[in-house]
Design brief:
Largest sheet: 8 strands, mixed
Number of strands: 8
Number of helices: 22
Structural class: alpha/beta
Distance between the termini: 28 Å
CATH superfamily of the largest domain: P-loop containing nucleotide triphosphate hydrolases
Order of helices and strands: HHHHEHEHEHEHEHEHEEHHHHHHHHHHHH
CATH class of the largest domain: Alpha Beta
Radius of gyration: 25 Å
Bound molecules: guanosine-5'-diphosphate, magnesium ion
Length: 448
């Protein structure tokens, strides 16, 4: 998220040679302006942002330090508007959230992503299929519900009003923490759609009404959001499809343009690809300082603390085995794309861009390793050393997994190296080592 904006930011900042005069400041501002407009930030927002930076830098005295400080504070002001951040629970459960938006914007997917996000945080969620315009819509939500293991209330061939009414009764009776209502959209805004949504809104009295917008539609997303806000009074925006070719600029301006906070951002088609939008953290990312808080939070939600401690112990002893490896792979899957994770590490924005197309789960290498592990006995999984020095075991595993003996040897060697690396990083100098490894990777190499 924001890789391209933050890299154009850092390029702009790098180009600045401050001689403490106004001409240098103007040049820096012009550079920023170019990159913001290129990223599709609305021109009025760009103007306001740069005016603030200019005024504040001049007030504090022209210089690189003051310029960066002014930029950081102006960005924060633009990103932050009055209202809630991320997911907010009602004082009394269930928290009721209604989704609205145009067809294809990602409402149904995002409903399930939010449910998954809450499930990982140990909440009981009921999703409500209130899009009865398209038959497939109910089926789609049902499938997602099954995939993530979250309850759904669905009743085909009836009025969405009745569905929502009964769903809310069920939620109260069965003590759900959160109710997420998926609604119908249209290709364009029309009277009928608005009427249906208004009816549902007055029935459900949602704690939050999220407008789900496709970030790829650029400034159109802001215009349609404004229309929905005028008619319905939305309390938050969720921008989807922030992966792909999104230039990202809409996310910088939308809250400021609407006066409604941007609450979440969808960064892929899979269920973990949803991130809360916290202005201060986004400013850090944009300024190239990474977002360690989000990374830590995301990790905490998917990794069992006890397990994590055991794992650390094992790693320190160099006892990382194949079962641990599978466990780790599962956790990673829950965390979403490698790219979005790496972009949270300070200074790693460019690196994330290079990883754009890496699909960890489906990579050829991971598939091979999985096949190999599937062909091992439980003992072998727990103790890689059993295999390392035993060629008949290796041959049996090769045969079982359809790999050649050479391939098995290669994977074993890589695994061994990885375990050594992990051990090394778990030590005192770990972070320094990691940094130098990352630099190596940035320079194009891959540590072996
Ligand atoms: N790449 C990407 N695709 C998304 C994202 N959110 C939704 N989609 C896709 O957009 C399409 C429409 O989504 P859907 O939830 O059915 O939209 P709805 O009509 O508003 O309910 C589907 O193919 C989704 O997989 C996202 O954040 N990233
Ligand atoms: Mg839908």
């Amino acid at each position: 998220m924001f890789e391209s904006i933050s890299s154009s930011f850092s390029n702009a900042i790098k180009k600045i040679r401050f001689q403490d005069d106004e001409k240098a400041l103007k040049k820096a501002l012009a550079e920023l302006k170019k990159s913001l407009l290129r990223s599709d930030v609305h021109h009025k927002v760009v103007k306001e942002l740069l005016n603030r930076v200019e005024t504040e830098t001049k007030r504090a005295g022209i210089g690189k330090e003051n310029f960066l400080k002014a930029l950081r504070s102006a960005l924060n002001d633009i990103l932050k508007v009055e209202g809630k951040q991320g997911f907010v629970f009602a004082p009394k459960p269930p928290t009721v959230v209604m989704m609205c938006g145009l067809q294809g914007s990602g409402k149904t997917t995002t409903t399930a992503k939010l449910a998954y996000y809450l499930k990982l945080r140990k909440k009981r969620v009921l999703m409500v299929a209130a899009d009865l315009q398209r038959l497939a819509a109910v089926e789609q939500l049902k499938q997602l519900a099954e995939q993530i293991g979250v309850d759904i209330y669905a009743q085909e061939e009836s009025d969405p009003y009745e569905v929502v009414k009964k769903a809310l009764e069920k939620a109260k009776d069965s003590l759900y923490d959160v109710v997420l209502i998926d609604t119908a959209g249209r290709l364009a805004i029309d009277e009928e759609l608005m009427e249906e949504l208004k009816r549902l809104k007055s029935l459900a009295e949602p704690d939050d009404l999220f407008y789900v917008a496709d970030s790829l539609t650029g400034q159109d997303a802001v215009r349609s959001a404004a229309k929905f806000h005028e008619e319905l009074g939305i309390t938050g925006v969720i921008l989807t499809k922030f992966d792909g070719d999104s230039k990202g600029g809409v996310a910088i301006g939308i809250a400021h343009q609407l006066g409604v906070p941007l609450r979440f951002v969808g960064t892929g088609e899979k269920m973990p690809d949803l991130e809360p939008f916290i202005p201060e953290r986004i400013t850090n990312r944009l300024m190239g300082a990474g977002d360690v808080e989000s990374l830590a939070e995301k990790t905490a939600a998917v990794i069992d603390e006890k397990k994590a401690k055991e794992l650390t112990k094992k790693i320190k002893k160099g006892k990382f085995n194949f079962e641990d490896f599978l466990d780790q792979l599962e956790s990673l899957k829950k965390m979403g794309s490698l790219k979005s994770l790496i972009s949270m590490i300070p200074g790693m924005g460019n690196m994330a861009q290079a990883l754009k197309n890496v699909d960890l789960e489906n990579s050829k290498e991971i598939k091979r390793i999985r096949a190999m592990i599937d062909s091992m006995t439980p003992k072998e999984r727990k103790d890689p050393d059993l295999i390392m020095k035993n060629s008949s075991r290796k041959r049996r595993i090769a045969q079982g997994s359809g790999l050649t003996l050479q391939e098995v040897n290669k994977i074993l060697k890589q695994f061994n190296n990885a375990a050594k690396l992990a051990k090394k990083f778990s030590g005192k100098k770990g972070m320094q080592d990691l940094q130098s490894m990352m630099n190596q990777m940035k320079a194009g190499g891959f540590p072996r």
